[in-house]
Design a protein that fits this description.
Blueprint lengths: L2 H29 L15 H19 L2 H24 L20 H13 L6 H23 L14 H19 L10 H64 L4 H14 L3 E8 L4 E6 L2 H11 L2 H8 L5 E4 L8 E7 L6 E7 H8 L7 E7 L2 E6 L15 E8 L5 E8 L11 H53 L3 E6 L4 E4 L1 H7 L20 H12 L4 E8 L5 E13 L2 E11 L1 H19 L3 E6 L7 E4 L1 H7 L3 H4 L14 H13 L3 E8 L5 E12 L5 E10 L1 H13 L11 H18 L2 E10 L1 H8 L1 H17 L6 E6 L2 E9 L2 H15 L3 E3 L2 E3 L2 E8 L8 H16 L5 E3 L2 H23 L2 E10 L4 E12 L3 E3 L1 H11 L2 H19 L8 E5 L2 H5 L3 H12 L6 E6 H5 L2 H14 L2 E7 L6 H4 L6 E4 L1 H5 L5 H16 L3 E4 L5 H9 L4 E2 L10 H9 L6
Parallel strand pairs: 25-26, 28-30, 30-31, 31-32, 32-33, 33-34, 34-35
Antiparallel strand pairs: 1-2, 1-5, 3-4, 4-5, 6-7, 6-9, 8-9, 10-11, 10-14, 12-13, 13-14, 15-16, 15-19, 17-18, 18-19, 20-22, 20-25, 21-22, 23-24, 27-28, 27-35, 28-29
Helix pairs in contact: 1-2, 1-6, 1-7, 1-12, 2-3, 2-4, 2-6, 3-4, 4-5, 5-6, 7-12, 21-22, 25-26, 27-29
């Protein structure tokens, strides 16, 4: 559509909009004065809104016909309406303020800015340097407000301060009126072009008919909705009456039963509990005598009971009960709780009345089926709302009055209480196609009216435009004939541009090149198809072409499908009447050519940069002369291109080159096929080298072989490495002996051979004793020399058929095949021990070594050869345990014990992780039977093996280091338990915990201990640590320093198992200890063995002289106890007094022993 047609369409649209605005405003304003005429809610327009709509339409019409006074009068009236609305809303803050002008609800404050903005725009008009911008911005704001109104209408939730129209129709007005203002501001010069009279009359008549049809269809739908609402409300009233009657009958039966049969309070409670459970709407029941003020009541909740008591004590309620004439009567006594009703049941000639509190809202919501979701239901009485719902039966939470009532009904309850029922349209009704039929009729009529007006306007202008179209058509035909051959038949891409750079025409080659349709490029600027980085280059060429100078350049473009094209483009100026009126472009596709050039450069660079030597031979000449070699070939062979060019590749061959390989190469040349082989060639300096050679023929486009390409890779260094790696893979670098891989291979072979010939075979695992100190003190160089001497001695002592290997470190393994008997292996081991025990003279050192040897023999039970190595290893460790410098032959007993030990170690780790341990406590008693302390003893109850003795798992834990985690667990648990037991214990009592040597000597011992005390809250004065003599005798000075630190903390120290460690008595007087515990081995036979008694007596006397307390362990008989008392022993521990017991049993035991004051 050209500019004239666009202006005609603009004027036709403005005409339709203005007439629609004026008619809707005038009609709605007049209908507002007939309140009894029920309007559809979707078409209802407040009279104030209608007045604003009418004035805005008249004002914009005045702009169109350039009536300034009318325009300004409309602006003044709009400003007056806005001012009145703002002032009246400020003075009257009710929910639905009524207008003094129309006695209808006023405009909300959110609409006032819209009215003020429209008034200002009409006052200033759209013409002027800045006025048209204000019109444009105001139109945009009105359009946005219309969009906001639509969004709110379709369910969007926006804050209340957001400007919006008062309804859907005002929203349409804002939307289209805003567009009209934008169009008027942009087309002010063309507004003088008026429509023809038939078009204007048709527009007015069409809009009138469309608006009338819209209103009549909407009116008819509204009447049907009211009829449907009336029927629905009648059904709801029947349901409510039935529900209330049903509940009244149930309670009447209860009142009748209580009046005829005496029921005690317990029976009434049971019966009322059933009623409360069966009927959720019943909140409380009272049996009340108003005359005697005697009441029995029961409620579902305490607050309901309080409310009922308040009502029964209210004068109005008592009056209502005393004046009851009917069997049942309802009342709503409390306006603060409008949903709570009192139902009174009175039996004739009975003083008591059954008074029930009923939640009417809950009763109606649960016991009736009100499911008409098309309306909002409102039920109220004189004291407030019962139900106010737009989506179902929910208690009312807002005092706001309902929307327009569609149907109402009044129901009178027994006792004269009146409830009012009403149905209204939903505030936000669900989408319904029927609701949009009226709007569809109106909008369709308006659209047809626009088409009619626009068509009539076009008809009136057709004669004027006919000549112009004929001339344009002839011009196009001439242009097409002139350029047809250039554009259609040119194989290159040809296109034409106007002086602004927009495409006027293109040939098919352009479309194929860019992979687009003609419609996508015609009228489009050349920048749309050029990468941004090329804009400067193309624009410079384009500007030069416009000046009359032909230009040529290259650039890359991307087609619509992402294909890159390299183009050689020529710009030629298009000259007409001596003026440059455009530019012709011719683009040659250079993509394939540039790709081939780039490919050649890549190939050339690849050959030059390749680490492989490349040579090219001419296949069409005799003797296949070399025509090219790359730098890598020169570096490998030493021959530059000048020396090999024109020669055959035979110049690389020498005396040790394989003749068969030479013949194979020659045959490949003759058969023109590929060949790959590893050949020994010679460099220019005569040095031989190994290389991988690959030859391949090169064929021309017709399949003829024109060249051969050869590739050589120097693998001489790799061959040397492979040989070295092959040796190191199976041998020890230090001693030259075989390594584990070689040994395992020989072992598999010899074992299979021994099985086949039923021969005896043995494996000796040799481990040097105390080799590490030599390595650590004298250095690794001396250690390596020792290992070399050991290897030499071992090699000299074995047979040639034996296999000797070093596994690493100080481990050697010897394989002895073809033995006469098992004793022969032991004899060899004995001989090796003697040989290895001889002194070693390394530099200035004379060193002595011994070895532990494990022997494993093959037998019929052997399944895998590796088992022999494992068995020899286990036997070697057995020899270490037997004092070293010996040998041990593997037996199944060794395997079983080691297996059990490994299993127990793994189980111990799982026990630590899974908390399988428990603490048992054994009390320590003084001579008078008082508890002096508790000793914490760890116990392990295995989930499948049952209880495991500490004598089994404690040594393993100490050996593996697991004792650290176990000891920390004991410390934590004992501290926690002691804090629980503290109320049952004397104030001076302590809990004793055994310390392991590893735990005591760890650098983090003190920090861990302090963290435990801090974490558990245990007082150091409540802790006693028991240490063995062995801990104290190892690094005595450091031990004494630690003991002093513990004593300073308030922790008590005890020497456990005293008398078994042969400790020096001279150290005992320096040790900061508090207590010694005599080992049970001395206590057991104290009554029968005088020596044991003498030892015990000496220990007690010595300890007392050193101010140490003495504890006797293992006291099991009364005779032992009496004798120890006679010897003046301080504290006793043993089965005679209490066995070690779990925590719970200890609590019971302590409860039976009184705590001294």
């Amino acid at each position: 559509m050209d500019i004239n047609n666009r202006e005609l369409a603009l004027q036709a649209g403005l005409l339709i909009l203005l007439v629609t605005t004026v008619l809707i405003g005038a009609g709605s304003f007049l209908l507002g004065f007939f309140p009894d005429l029920h309007q559809p809610q979707s078409l209802a327009l407040l009279p104030d809104s209608a007045l604003v709509l009418l004035l805005s339409g008249l004002g914009l019409s005045s702009v169109m016909v350039n009536f300034k006074r009318c325009r300004q009068a409309a602006a003044i009236l709009l400003m007056a309406v806005a001012s009145y609305t703002l002032l009246h809303n400020a003075l009257d803050e009710s929910y639905y303020p009524l207008s003094l002008l129309s006695n209808h609800p006023r405009l909300p404050n959110q609409v006032v800015p819209i009215v003020v903005m429209a008034s200002l725009c009409l006052w200033i008009g759209p013409q002027g340097r800045w006025q048209w911008r204000i019109w444009q911005l105001s139109g945009l704001l009105l359009w946005i407000i219309g969009c906001i109104t639509f969004a709110i209408h379709f369910g969007w939730s926006l804050p209340g301060w957001v400007p919006r129209a008062s309804g859907l129709i005002p929203g349409f007005f804002c939307f289209f009126f805003g567009l009209a203002m934008i169009m008027v501001s942009q087309h002010i010069p063309h507004l003088k072009a008026s429509l023809s009279s038939p078009a204007v009359l048709a527009g007015i008549l069409g809009v009138s008919l469309s608006i009338s049809g819209w209103f009549l269809v909407g009116w008819n739908q509204h009447q049907e909705t009211r009829h449907s609402a009336k029927q629905s409300l009648e059904g709801i009233a029947v349901n409510i009456a039935q529900t209330l009657t049903s509940r009244t009958v149930v309670l009447e039966r209860l009142a009748e039963r209580w009046s005829l049969v005496f029921a005690d309070n317990m029976s009434r409670n049971r019966e009322v509990e059933r009623y409360l459970a069966d009927y959720p709407s019943i909140l409380a029941i009272a049996y009340f005598n108003p005359q005697a003020n005697d009441v029995w009541r029961r409620a579902r909740h305490s607050d309901t009971l309080v409310w009922l008591d308040d009502q029964l004590n209210t004068l109005s309620t008592l009056t209502w009960l005393n004046q009851q004439r009917n069997t049942a009567q309802w009342a709503f006594p409390d306006y603060e709780h409008p949903t709570l009703a009192l139902l009174s049941i009175h039996q004739p000639d009975q003083p008591y009345q059954l008074v029930t509190v009923v939640d009417i809202a809950l009763l109606l919501a649960q016991d009736t089926s009100v499911t008409n979701g098309a309306f909002a239901l409102h039920i109220n009485h004189v004291n407030g709302h019962l139900v106010d719902s737009g989506n179902g039966l929910l208690p009312a939470t807002s005092p706001a009055p309902p929307p327009q009532t569609l149907a109402d009904h009044t129901a009178v309850l027994p006792g004269g209480t009146v409830i009012n029922l009403a149905l209204s349209e939903l505030p936000d009704p669900p989408p319904n196609l029927a609701n949009y039929i009226a709007a569809g009729v109106g909008l369709s009529g308006l659209l047809l009216t626009f088409q009619l007006v626009f068509s009539l306007a076009l008809i009136s202008a057709r004669a004027q435009r006919t000549n112009e179209l004929s001339k344009a058509k002839k011009t196009l035909q001439d242009s097409e004939q002139r350029f047809r051959s250039l554009f259609i038949y040119n194989p290159d891409a040809v296109f034409s541009l106007d002086v602004s750079g927009y495409h006027l025409s293109v040939n098919q080659s352009v479309l194929d090149l860019l992979e687009i349709d003609e419609a996508q490029i015609i009228g489009t600027h050349w920048q749309a198809f050029i990468p941004p980085e090329s804009y400067t280059t193309v624009d410079a060429a384009f500007q030069q072409a416009l000046k009359g100078s032909a230009q040529r350049f290259e650039l890359e473009v991307i087609s619509q499908h992402g294909h890159a094209r390299q183009l050689d483009i020529s710009f030629l100026p298009t000259v007409a009447m001596g003026q440059v009126v455009g530019v012709y472009g011719i683009a040659k596709d250079m993509t394939v050519l540039r790709q081939k050039e780039a490919q050649l450069r890549i190939y050339q660079r690849s050959l030059e940069a390749s680490s492989n030597g490349i040579l090219i031979c001419e296949a069409l000449q005799d003797d296949y002369p070399i025509i090219y070699v790359n730098p890598a070939f020169v570096a490998i062979t030493g021959y530059p291109l000048e020396e090999v060019k024109g020669h055959n590749c035979r110049l690389l061959q020498g005396k040790d080159t394989d003749p068969k390989q030479i013949a194979d190469i020659q045959l490949a040349f003759e058969q023109q096929r590929d060949i790959a082989l590893t050949i020994r060639n010679y460099r220019k300096n005569g040095q031989a080298f190994w290389n991988n050679l690959f030859l391949s023929p090169v064929k021309s486009h017709n399949g003829q072989v024109t060249h051969f390409v050869g590739s050589i890779t120097d693998i001489s260094e790799r061959r040397d490495h492979e040989n070295a790696l092959a040796f190191h893979a199976t041998h020890d670098a230090l001693t030259g002996l075989g390594n584990r891989a070689l040994f395992e291979d020989r072992l598999r072979h010899d074992v299979e051979l021994a099985k086949r010939h039923e021969q005896q075979l043995a494996v000796l695992f040799i481990d040097l004793d105390e080799f590490k100190p030599i390595n650590d003190t004298l250095g690794h160089d001396i250690g390596d020399q020792v290992l070399i001497h050991v290897a030499q001695r071992l090699k000299q002592a074995i047979r040639p058929s034996d296999t000797l290997c070093r596994f690493g470190g100080d481990e050697f393994v010897l394989l002895l095949p073809d033995l006469n008997s098992p004793l022969q292996a032991e004899e060899i081991a004995e001989r090796l021990l003697v040989e290895l025990a001889l002194p070693y003279r390394i530099e200035r050192h004379e060193l002595y070594l011994s070895a532990s040897i494990g022997i494993a023999l093959n037998d019929k039970r052997l399944l895998h050869s590796e088992e022999l190595l494992q068995q020899a290893d286990m036997a070697m460790y057995k020899a270490k345990q037997h004092g070293r410098n010996t040998f041990q032959t593997f037996t199944q007993d060794i395997n079983q014990k080691l297996t059990q030990r490994v299993t127990l170690r793994n189980d111990l780790q799982e026990a630590i992780l899974n908390d399988q341990f428990a603490l048992h406590y054994q009390p320590l008693l003084t001579q008078d039977g008082k508890v002096q302390g508790l000793e914490a003893l760890v116990r392990w109850n295995h989930p499948t093996k049952g209880p495991i003795s500490p004598g089994l798992f404690i040594p393993i834990a100490e050996e593996t280091g697991q004792i650290i985690a176990l000891s920390q667990w004991v410390m934590d648990r004992a501290a926690q338990d002691f804090l629980i037991l503290k109320p049952l214990l004397p104030a001076h009592c302590r809990v004793a915990i055994n310390l392991s040597p590893m735990q005591f000597h760890r650098p983090s011992f003190f920090s861990t201990l302090l963290s435990t005390l801090e974490a558990t809250g245990l007082n150091p004065n409540s802790l006693e640590l028991e240490l063995t003599e062995g801990i104290l005798m190892n690094d005595t000075d450091a031990a004494i320093e630690k003991l002093h630190a513990l004593r300073n903390m308030g922790i008590s120290i005890a020497i456990d198992d005293f008398g078994t460690g042969f400790s020096s008595l001279s150290y005992l007087r320096h040790l900061p200890v508090d207590k010694v515990k005599i080992d049970r081995s001395f206590i057991t036979n104290i009554s029968e063995n005088s020596k044991d008694a003498a030892v015990v007596q000496g220990i007690i006397a010595l300890a007392h002289h050193l101010d140490l307390m003495v504890v006797a362990e293992g006291v099991e008989t009364l005779q032992q106890h009496q004798q120890l008392i006679a010897l003046d022993c301080d504290v006793f521990q043993g089965y005679l007094f209490a066995r070690p017991m779990p925590f719970e049993a200890l609590q019971r035991w302590l409860s039976d022993h009184s705590i001294p004051a």
